[in-house]
Amino acid sequence: MSIQILFSFLFLLVASSSYASVQDFCVADLSQSDTPSGFPCKDVKKVSVSDFVYSGLAAAGNTSNLIKAAVTPAFTAQFPGVNGLGISTARLDLAVGGVIPMHTHPGGSELLVVIEGTICAGFISSANTVYFKTLKKGDIMLFPQGLLHFQINSGKGAALAIVSFSSPVPGLQITDFALFANDLPTEIVAATTFLDPATIKKLKGVLGGTN
Protein backbone atom coordinates (compact mmCIF):
# COMPACT_ATOMS: atom_id res chain seq x y z
CA MET A 1 0.00 0.00 0.00
CA SER A 2 2.81 2.42 0.89
CA ILE A 3 4.46 1.81 -2.50
CA GLN A 4 1.18 2.58 -4.26
CA ILE A 5 0.78 5.80 -2.29
CA LEU A 6 4.36 6.82 -3.08
CA PHE A 7 3.84 6.05 -6.79
CA SER A 8 0.63 8.07 -6.84
CA PHE A 9 2.34 11.00 -5.12
CA LEU A 10 5.25 10.96 -7.58
CA PHE A 11 2.84 10.77 -10.51
CA LEU A 12 0.91 13.80 -9.27
CA LEU A 13 4.15 15.69 -8.62
CA VAL A 14 5.44 15.05 -12.14
CA ALA A 15 2.08 15.85 -13.67
CA SER A 16 1.74 19.14 -11.81
CA SER A 17 5.34 20.23 -12.46
CA SER A 18 5.06 19.52 -16.18
CA TYR A 19 1.70 21.26 -16.59
CA ALA A 20 3.32 24.60 -17.37
CA SER A 21 5.69 23.01 -19.87
CA VAL A 22 2.85 21.68 -22.02
CA GLN A 23 1.61 25.23 -22.60
CA ASP A 24 3.18 27.27 -25.38
CA PHE A 25 3.38 30.32 -23.13
CA CYS A 26 1.84 32.01 -20.12
CA VAL A 27 1.61 35.73 -20.80
CA ALA A 28 1.26 37.47 -17.44
CA ASP A 29 -2.14 38.79 -16.48
CA LEU A 30 -0.89 41.91 -14.70
CA SER A 31 -4.38 42.70 -13.44
CA GLN A 32 -4.01 39.72 -11.09
CA SER A 33 -1.74 39.38 -8.06
CA ASP A 34 1.76 38.01 -8.45
CA THR A 35 2.47 34.60 -6.90
CA PRO A 36 5.66 32.71 -5.98
CA SER A 37 5.40 30.89 -9.31
CA GLY A 38 4.66 34.03 -11.33
CA PHE A 39 1.56 35.83 -12.53
CA PRO A 40 -1.54 33.88 -13.60
CA CYS A 41 -1.82 33.37 -17.34
CA LYS A 42 -3.69 35.88 -19.45
CA ASP A 43 -6.70 34.47 -21.28
CA VAL A 44 -5.19 33.14 -24.51
CA LYS A 45 -8.03 34.75 -26.47
CA LYS A 46 -6.77 38.14 -25.28
CA VAL A 47 -3.12 37.47 -26.12
CA SER A 48 -1.69 39.39 -29.08
CA VAL A 49 1.69 39.78 -30.75
CA SER A 50 2.30 42.92 -28.68
CA ASP A 51 2.65 40.66 -25.63
CA PHE A 52 5.78 39.18 -27.23
CA VAL A 53 7.36 42.43 -28.42
CA TYR A 54 8.90 45.14 -26.22
CA SER A 55 10.48 48.37 -27.45
CA GLY A 56 11.47 49.81 -24.09
CA LEU A 57 15.18 49.09 -24.50
CA ALA A 58 15.57 51.31 -27.57
CA ALA A 59 16.16 54.52 -25.62
CA ALA A 60 19.14 55.19 -23.36
CA GLY A 61 18.44 55.34 -19.64
CA ASN A 62 18.98 58.45 -17.52
CA THR A 63 22.51 58.32 -16.09
CA SER A 64 22.29 61.67 -14.29
CA ASN A 65 22.48 60.13 -10.83
CA LEU A 66 24.90 59.17 -8.08
CA ILE A 67 26.21 56.06 -9.83
CA LYS A 68 26.10 57.56 -13.34
CA ALA A 69 24.29 54.48 -14.58
CA ALA A 70 20.85 53.31 -15.58
CA VAL A 71 19.23 49.90 -15.88
CA THR A 72 16.14 49.64 -18.06
CA PRO A 73 14.42 46.31 -17.32
CA ALA A 74 12.31 44.05 -19.48
CA PHE A 75 11.01 41.88 -16.67
CA THR A 76 7.50 40.48 -16.29
CA ALA A 77 6.07 43.83 -15.18
CA GLN A 78 7.31 45.53 -18.37
CA PHE A 79 7.28 42.55 -20.74
CA PRO A 80 4.45 40.15 -19.75
CA GLY A 81 5.42 37.60 -22.39
CA VAL A 82 8.45 36.41 -20.39
CA ASN A 83 6.22 35.23 -17.54
CA GLY A 84 6.83 31.55 -16.83
CA LEU A 85 9.58 31.18 -19.42
CA GLY A 86 12.54 31.57 -17.07
CA ILE A 87 14.09 34.47 -19.00
CA SER A 88 14.24 38.27 -19.02
CA THR A 89 16.54 41.03 -20.20
CA ALA A 90 17.58 44.62 -19.49
CA ARG A 91 19.57 47.50 -20.94
CA LEU A 92 22.58 48.82 -19.02
CA ASP A 93 23.81 52.36 -19.69
CA LEU A 94 27.01 53.58 -18.05
CA ALA A 95 28.15 57.18 -18.44
CA VAL A 96 31.85 58.01 -18.12
CA GLY A 97 32.80 56.97 -14.59
CA GLY A 98 29.53 55.08 -14.19
CA VAL A 99 29.28 52.04 -11.95
CA ILE A 100 26.81 49.37 -10.96
CA PRO A 101 27.92 48.79 -7.35
CA MET A 102 28.45 45.36 -5.85
CA HIS A 103 25.08 43.58 -5.93
CA THR A 104 23.35 40.23 -6.26
CA HIS A 105 20.41 38.75 -8.15
CA PRO A 106 18.94 36.12 -5.80
CA GLY A 107 16.52 34.85 -8.43
CA GLY A 108 18.70 34.18 -11.47
CA SER A 109 22.04 34.11 -13.24
CA GLU A 110 23.07 36.99 -15.51
CA LEU A 111 24.70 37.12 -18.94
CA LEU A 112 26.14 40.47 -20.06
CA VAL A 113 26.96 41.42 -23.66
CA VAL A 114 28.94 44.61 -24.26
CA ILE A 115 27.43 46.58 -27.15
CA GLU A 116 29.53 49.74 -26.93
CA GLY A 117 32.43 50.95 -24.82
CA THR A 118 34.62 49.25 -22.25
CA ILE A 119 33.36 47.71 -19.01
CA CYS A 120 35.35 46.25 -16.14
CA ALA A 121 33.14 43.54 -14.66
CA GLY A 122 33.55 40.76 -12.16
CA PHE A 123 32.08 38.57 -9.46
CA ILE A 124 33.12 36.98 -6.18
CA SER A 125 32.51 33.28 -5.57
CA SER A 126 31.24 31.83 -2.30
CA ALA A 127 34.87 30.84 -1.65
CA ASN A 128 35.80 34.56 -1.95
CA THR A 129 37.67 34.00 -5.20
CA VAL A 130 37.50 37.06 -7.45
CA TYR A 131 36.92 36.78 -11.20
CA PHE A 132 37.08 40.05 -13.12
CA LYS A 133 38.05 41.26 -16.57
CA THR A 134 37.93 44.36 -18.74
CA LEU A 135 35.35 43.68 -21.43
CA LYS A 136 35.21 45.27 -24.86
CA LYS A 137 32.55 45.47 -27.56
CA GLY A 138 31.25 42.00 -28.36
CA ASP A 139 32.54 40.38 -25.17
CA ILE A 140 30.19 38.32 -23.02
CA MET A 141 30.48 37.60 -19.30
CA LEU A 142 28.46 35.34 -17.02
CA PHE A 143 27.52 36.12 -13.40
CA PRO A 144 26.22 33.05 -11.52
CA GLN A 145 23.02 33.34 -9.52
CA GLY A 146 23.27 34.89 -6.08
CA LEU A 147 26.95 35.89 -6.27
CA LEU A 148 28.18 39.43 -5.64
CA HIS A 149 29.16 41.18 -8.87
CA PHE A 150 29.76 44.63 -10.35
CA GLN A 151 30.21 46.59 -13.58
CA ILE A 152 32.32 49.74 -14.04
CA ASN A 153 32.71 51.91 -17.12
CA SER A 154 36.49 51.79 -17.51
CA GLY A 155 36.61 53.58 -20.85
CA LYS A 156 36.73 57.19 -21.99
CA GLY A 157 33.21 57.23 -23.43
CA ALA A 158 29.74 55.98 -22.58
CA ALA A 159 29.23 52.23 -22.39
CA LEU A 160 26.20 50.14 -23.30
CA ALA A 161 25.43 46.51 -22.50
CA ILE A 162 22.47 44.19 -22.78
CA VAL A 163 22.02 41.74 -19.93
CA SER A 164 19.83 38.66 -19.83
CA PHE A 165 18.67 36.64 -16.84
CA SER A 166 17.62 33.06 -16.20
CA SER A 167 14.45 34.32 -14.51
CA PRO A 168 11.61 36.66 -15.47
CA VAL A 169 12.09 38.31 -12.05
CA PRO A 170 15.78 37.97 -11.06
CA GLY A 171 15.57 40.30 -8.06
CA LEU A 172 18.21 42.80 -6.98
CA GLN A 173 20.05 43.73 -3.79
CA ILE A 174 22.79 46.36 -3.92
CA THR A 175 25.23 45.88 -1.04
CA ASP A 176 25.91 49.58 -0.43
CA PHE A 177 22.21 50.40 -0.24
CA ALA A 178 21.52 47.37 1.94
CA LEU A 179 24.06 48.62 4.48
CA PHE A 180 23.75 52.40 4.30
CA ALA A 181 20.36 53.35 2.81
CA ASN A 182 18.18 52.20 5.69
CA ASP A 183 17.73 52.67 9.44
CA LEU A 184 20.09 49.91 10.62
CA PRO A 185 21.87 51.53 13.60
CA THR A 186 25.39 52.79 12.93
CA GLU A 187 26.84 50.78 15.82
CA ILE A 188 25.52 47.54 14.31
CA VAL A 189 26.91 48.40 10.89
CA ALA A 190 30.25 49.25 12.51
CA ALA A 191 30.34 45.98 14.42
CA THR A 192 29.57 43.90 11.33
CA THR A 193 31.69 45.74 8.75
CA PHE A 194 34.65 47.02 10.85
CA LEU A 195 34.10 50.51 9.42
CA ASP A 196 34.40 53.48 11.76
CA PRO A 197 31.15 55.26 12.75
CA ALA A 198 32.17 58.51 11.03
CA THR A 199 32.54 56.77 7.67
CA ILE A 200 29.25 54.95 8.15
CA LYS A 201 27.38 58.15 8.97
CA LYS A 202 28.91 59.81 5.91
CA LEU A 203 27.75 56.95 3.68
CA LYS A 204 24.30 56.99 5.27
CA GLY A 205 24.12 60.70 4.55
CA VAL A 206 24.96 60.14 0.88
CA LEU A 207 22.60 57.20 0.39
CA GLY A 208 19.70 58.40 2.54
CA GLY A 209 20.10 56.16 5.57
CA THR A 210 19.38 57.12 9.17
CA ASN A 211 20.49 56.13 12.70
UniProtKB/TrEMBL annotation:
Residues spanning the signal sequence: 1-20
Organism: Helianthus annuus (Common sunflower)
Keyword set includes Manganese: yes
Residues binding oxalate, per UniProt: 105, 110
Family assignment from sequence similarity: Belongs to the germin family.
Disulfide bond annotation, renumbered to this chain: 26-41
Protein name from the UniProt record: Germin-like protein
InterPro entries (UniProt xref): Cupin_1, Germin, Germin_Mn-BS, RmlC-like_jellyroll, RmlC_Cupin_sf
One of the record's GO cellular component terms: extracellular matrix
Keywords, sorted A to Z: Apoplast, Disulfide bond, Manganese, Metal-binding, Secreted, Signal
Annotated ranges, domain Cupin type-1: 55-201
Molecular function, one GO term: manganese ion binding
Binding site residues for Mn(2+): 103, 105, 110, 149
Keyword Manganese applies: yes
Domain of life per record: Eukaryota
UniProt subcellular location: Secreted, Extracellular space, Apoplast
